[in-house]
Amino acid sequence: MAAWTTSSNEALTISLVRPTEDKASLGEEESYENFHPTFTYPIYGEEEKIYGYEGLTIDLRFASGSLVPYLSVNYSAKLPSTSTVDDVEGTLSQFIPSDYLTDETAFLAQVEQDGTTFKPSGQLIHSYVRLSPLAAANGKGKAAANTQQTLDSEDANAVVYEVYHTTWDTPGFREYHRRMQLFILLYIEGGSYINEEEDSWEFAVLYEKRKRQSTPGTSTYHFVGYSSLYPFFHFPESVRLRLSQFVILPPYQRQGHGSELYDAIYNYVLSQPTITELTVEDPAEAFEDLRDRNDLKMLLSHEVFISEAFGADTLSHGGGRVGGVGRAGRSGKGGVSKSAPGKMGPPVDKLWAENWRKKLKIAGRQFQRLIEILILSKLDPIDPRPMRAYRLQVKERLYRFNFETLAQLEKSERLEKLEETFQNVCEDYQRILSMVQ
Ligand SMILES: CC(=O)SCCNC(=O)CCNC(=O)[C@H](O)C(C)(C)COP(=O)(O)OP(=O)(O)OC[C@H]1O[C@@H](n2cnc3c(N)ncnc32)[C@H](O)[C@@H]1OP(=O)(O)O
């Protein structure tokens, strides 16, 4: 039986294919082809196994910009068709647009055409510049690599990345979304397709933009990842934007692109007067880390917030930073006297915190956690009074959050459980703090 059984995660390879000219300018370390999915259970079943083939390969390629798909299923031997032999192409085809290509020549022609015709649709909301992986590997522009923000987009070694905001009304976007949504199934545990009938969905799509050597002044675009966002309307006219799905494709992961996409969405939320809050639906652990890290960096670089939080002279002592972290900082020094005590306590001034939470449009529980993390970063563990106040503040939140479970326990058990949870939370906060150092 094992000989005829193949892991669907291993059999399926994904490629993002660029036009020949754009491929030629890539370095060896830049590979956008032949990577694997993390999950295929939504397609091939819980076991992620395909039965009935030997030497099975499922070659799923996408034109790197337009994401036009090409599918080719190959094998060295196949059992006679029975109900137990899987229909590899038939099964996968239910999850991709029906007009996928199976003719390689037609696909490669589409890829070449992409080079001159494909442009992202929607509204440009954010762009940033990175040193190209080739230049970084060759040690060019080392200084620029360390201070990405200062790299000029016109620099020959620069690659620009752009984030576009779209809705279903964006021309051509419905078709585009049908091509990219497969990545949600392949990379997000528990991910599923969103309902196209719901009109309100919004999206933020991230592209790499490369200059074309042969035609100065022109660029090609390559898909990096995206996020889907759902606005919940609240009476009378405010909106909570819920980040629902978020994916950066494997060749682009762990290079800071997820952080840029998240920041782009957050800044979009700040710029929209009707949106009051950014919330996140059921975040995966890796995404929680990304969110915590970016939210903390934002707070630490906010001079007014930090000076109010920890006292007016915090900044002059560099105290807004945790272990020396923090960007150049936001401008503005508002109304804090030199001797003003910090509002963080502990315990934190709740009214003050709630005003900042609203201003910064961060969801309630997330903001409470961020405040707790920041307080912990300043606490002297051997000073008993603030330690006690901190423990009570955190435990009060934990108690409310876990009320149903805790209320069923005996008092002594409850206290023990709360203390244990508190210790775990502090440990996790220390881990998060070490990520922003
Ligand atoms: C609500 C939801 O949808 S939850 C589901 C989230 N999505 C998924 O799980 C799908 C699969 N995973 C992914 O799509 C991605 O891995 C994400 C979204 C989780 C993270 O995106 P990434 O682009 O990899 O994140 P980013 O690069 O910004 O940060 C990740 C790491 O890269 C590091 N990093 C940041 N900037 C750079 C840089 N310039 N160069 C190198 N590494 C960097 C960070 O330190 C971080 O490392 P750490 O995780 O060890 O602390």
From TrEMBL:
EC number in record: 2.3.1.48
Example of a GO cellular component annotation carried by this entry: cytoplasm
Descriptive protein name: Histone acetyltransferase type B catalytic subunit
Keyword Methyltransferase included in the entry's annotation: no
Site (Interaction with histone H4 N-terminus): 201
Subcellular location, record wording: Cytoplasm; Nucleus
GO biological process entries: DNA repair; subtelomeric heterochromatin formation
Domain Histone acetyl transferase HAT1 N-terminal: 4-189
Function per UniProt: Catalytic component of the histone acetylase B (HAT-B) complex. Has intrinsic substrate specificity that modifies lysine in recognition sequence GXGKXG. Involved in DNA double-strand break repair.
Compositionally skewed regions (Gly residues) per UniProt: 324-335
Annotated region (Disordered), positions in chain: 324-344
